[in-house]
Amino acid sequence: MSENRRRPILYNGEIYSRSVVKSSGGGEKFYPLSYDEARFNLLNDIEKTQDLVSGMSAKSRLPNEIILSMTLQPEFSAKSYYPENLFDLDSFKFGIQEVGSRIWRERKESGRADDSTKFSKMFFLRATEESFKKLKAHLNKSTVVLNKGFIQDVRKISNLGILPDSEQIQGIEEDWKEGRLEAVLHPFYIDRHLSLNHFLNTVGEFGVNTNNIKYKQYESGVTFISFNGTREMLGAITGYNPLRVVHPLQLRDLPSVERGISVNGGFEPPIFSKKSTTTIGVIDGGLDMKNPFVKNYSDYEFVVSGSAIESMVDHGTQVTGTVLYGPLNNFSTGDRLPEPTVSVRNFGVLSSTTDLPDLYEAIDAIERIVPANPDIDVYNLSIGPKGPILDDNISRFTYACDKLSYDYDKLFCVAVGNDGHVKGYERIQAPSDSVNGLAVGAYTRDMGNPVRASYSSIGPGREGCKMKPDVLAFGGCDNHPIHLISSEKNKKILGAGTSFSTPIVSSTAASLISQSESVINPLTAKSLIIHSSIAPSGTGHSQEMGHGILQDRIEDIVSCEENSYTLIYKGEIKQGKYAQFELPWDDSIVQGKAHFQWTVAVMTEVDQLSSDDYTSSSVEVTFYPNSDKYLFTNTNNTKIDGVLKRTETVDIVANPDRAKLLVQHGWTQANFPKTDSPTSSFRTESELRDDLKWDSLDTREYRKMAKNVKKPFFHIHALSRGSRTSNPMVKFAMIFSVKTPKAEIDLYANVLSNYSALIPLQLRVESQVDVRSST
Asked: How far apart are CA 356 and CA 5, in angstroms?
């Protein structure tokens, strides 16, 4: 299609929706143990645990409460098998409260998981020594007086005990001697006001300067602590019962590619006429406000104590320049740059008051910045802690970004890190594992083709958003560096890194929101960027390339190709409920295949206590391509025409007599048309996780002969889990594209004509922003 034939995407799809009621269920669950067997094992575990607790010193535990770990049988990992009869919820039972969870993995002799490794769910429990007595007394009662729920919950338990010492220390190499650490303490109730000081006294006995410790205790009671520690001190807190995990916490280094080199061939700054009202928050190391390329288009505030670090000010200046101008590879020496169509509010958060910048001081600042700047929808984060993410641990940086995104409806665009070429450290780095954010990697060019830059960290992400990175933008490499502004006259910087690919995406996201007059919100902008990205392999998401490469121009994100349309749906659905959305279609299309593609994202509450159930909500999409075709099931084992079949699909409009015959012979017609979408019935929790059921983002593609598509629609099922969610509504944004390459009609025009509530998206003239990298 020629450029002038591209037409704007549509929005307001949610108008064509209605609520529906669907039944769900499964067969009787198989319990691997009888109640007597499970009861015997549990009583035995309690006896062993009591012995362990009685042997603990006062320094290794709190005076009143103890943390236990309880592992379920692998078959009972799903939310629906939550053993609520064992816990104090709305009423007192045994004095046992669930305070978090994570995935349990069967330990192999090698210490590593493989394809045969068993997975289950491990709960962390807060209890008292009195709790053991009450639970034992209840277990010793006759089954005649026990309720069915309690009996079934006991049969779900595989093991009860104390978390092994080896699982508290994570990500620390054998040659590690000292450095900054992050510790996470479990939440307590009786001992809540004692837990922090108890920990500080414990580490203080081993030379830790408690005056240099930073901490944050959130409403749930979980406590994050940042401190300088030593190998000797680690040995002292191994087995410390209130400790959930401890791991390294250090600011990412600036690799040589990000530091770049200064060369001749600079540009001329724009002639100032106006400053855009589209403001992007850049959270970084600082900003050189004397730089002529940024001074008229940026505001700057250093928001932590101490003074800025020169190298990090350079970094923040280059990041800010990339937000404003994008890559400068297409400009020649002496070219005057155009005025940017966005502006920047730069917040310096890295200080030289200590030997290393304190990331907790930076996080504290971010938690102040976001609520204080309601006009900023998009924040750029090209900084973060060093090292790959850990599945069983959620860093405070990640949790803070996710919580701020949810509480204030913001989008964090976060660099995935630059260790993608380092064996064993190549996985994405926090906080790019945030489930509400947009994780950005970097690509470069090889023989003219886009490829992942070798340094760009790779997926998978954490449980709750495994498909990371989200997208890639141009970040350059040694052979094809990205060109950046310099603070030296007539100079430019040749660099590379995810620090510079990320601001390209941040600028695009903010422009989409602002120039659409907020028709596009942060969640929709995220969905659109991912949906429109170009996957070089054409095979969907990959751990190296994400969903694909950011479109060069915003125009390409918000317009439709020939014989296609793209429609935005957004809204909220109550947890546990279903909504039906009509998908605009023209039944006269009978030539070729119809290609359906959708991207759906949710803005979810997160549970920092549960690394396996980190996302508290998601949505499940079921697509029905033909409203007339239903599945009939032979529930009476009756033969039709002398043939015994179990199921049959019938077009009830084209062949009503066949449908009537089946019903007369006792067959059952499904409540809804036939779907080719995967169903969740009778699948294990592990299989559901593999299918990304609980992820905050899902993308799918589906192809069907156009002649077999009639009045298509889809259902969105709002899902929730966990006991710590507060909002009954699930917020979502869905982008749905329909392509009919061989259609003999104008699909776009017909859809607009027949669905009058749909509105073409119009951006302000600034929408022609070019984020093209280079050739």
From this structure: 55
